[in-house]
Amino acid sequence: MIIREEKDHYLFITQHDHAYIAGEMFSNLRKEFVPDKHYESLKFAIHQHDRAWLVPDSHPLMDDLTGKPFSFLNYPEKLKLQFYKFGIEQVNLANSYAAILCSMHYCSLLKHSVTEEAKVFLDREKSRQKFLCNGLKLSQNEVEILDYQLKILNLCDNIALYVCMTSPETRKDQEHPMFVNGLDNSNFFNQYGYRGIVPTFIQGKLKVKFSYSPFENHFDVKIAFRSVPKDLIKEVGLATAYHDARSNYYALRIT
User: Fold this and answer.
1) Residue 244 class from Cβ within 10 Å (0-12 exposed, 13-18 middle, 19+ buried)?
2) InterPro entries from the entry (predicted)?
3) pTM of the predicted model as reported, rounded to 2 decimal places
4) Using an 8 Å Cβ cutoff, are 145 and 27 in contact?
5) pLDDT digits (tens, 9 = 90+) for 78-95
6) What is the DSSP string of 111-164?
7) Is the Cβ–Cβ distance between 66 and 105 less than 8 Å?
8) Long-range contacts of 181-186 (CB under 8 A, 24+ apart)
9) Are 187 and 203 in contact (CB under 8 A)?
């Protein structure tokens, strides 16, 4: 779950809704960034890369230590890894190539983890990736293309995270630290090649601009959310308050 805390409420955005936005980012990328090989499988992987969160996001949990809901940033790792595994298996039922990319994506998120559970997960997923690559009879060149496609997935994921995690009213110097100096690993897609792409909300408008735009044209995305009052959470509990909240959305222009 992606969560923005406001004064008297929390704004919840599911990871799967965020993944749909990532898919919209992919559909609008500059054509020179997108390889023709396995295009539909890459598109499917981006749309489904957070399928692992469908179950946990359907029943958000409260962190007893902080008194705040768990977000994807601090969700308990042991639980998260089980959902990651389930998500990859679900994607594999429909598209094994996309499952390889989703597996690689989750592995990249755990590269700094030192827990035994993460090590077991990484070892298992490396074996899964090799097994699926062999099953699809991918050439060495196609395996190398996977690494590039993972960069595309990560770019679309990070831009979608930015537009979901950041309130349009937030000043640049008050944004989450992961966005202030540009998107992780986005320098690959910057024509200047030596710095990451920096996204910024245009103050007073529902518009996002970039220091270097990776997109062909301007386009709109819808941010689906639920606004849950803190008082209601205290009264009836997080799960009930979340399910009772009405779904809503607002539109953003990506420029």
Assistant:
1) exposed
2) DUF3891 (IPR024992)
3) 0.94
4) no
5) 999 999 999 999 999 999
6) TT---HHHHHHHHHHHHHHHHHHHHHT--HHHHHHHHHHHHHHHHHHHHHHHHH
7) no
8) 182/211, 183/155, 183/158, 183/159, 184/154, 184/158, 185/151, 185/154, 185/155, 185/158, 186/155, 186/158, 186/214
9) no
